[in-house]
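Recall the central idea of this unit: under ordinary conditions, the amino acid sequence of a chain determines the structure it adopts. In this exercise we apply that idea directly, starting from the sequence alone.
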Amino acid sequence: MNLCRKLVLGVFLSLFVSAFAHATPDIAAGKERAGMCFNCHGKEGNSKNSNFPILAGQKPAYLVNQLRAFRDGARENGMMQNMAANLTDQEINNLAAYFASEKNVSAGGDSKLATKGESKAPMCFGCHGNKASGMGVTPKLAGQQPAYLQRQLQAFKAGTRKNGPMRGISNMLTDEEVKAVTEYMGSLK
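Accordingly, the structure predicted from this sequence is:
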């Protein structure tokens, strides 16, 4: 291989590698930036309001994926799109690392309905992990606000929230089953 080709290949490879090199997430910087999130998502990401999901204890990959989707307009929500619009990739990584490092507090669920939903819950574990603890880019459902999860499943059903597999799964559940399985998810720790 001649010198020119080696030089071009070397420059190309260094640019390629540098494009994917990311600084290590900084939990302290994420915590500092997270103050803007606490009004809706609760102190340390433990929302007590069913309009907003619990972020504490979520997998970093899921949080990064969702914040980028809001920032880039792939996931629609006016408030979240506005909040994420000016976040850099590093700030998103820092926020994800911070919220992932926090312990989530279970929202709880109606025990009678949770018992009914337990038999349907295993269909969620393949993607959302054992006992819905989250896995990669799929969220932790355990301990999440049941009413929030119900709205998300209804949005998947209606097609207003996009995700092919979730649309199919949500369409397999009756409204009563949606309520029961989300109450079960909320009851998990």
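The CA atoms of residues 10 and 155 lie 48 Å apart.
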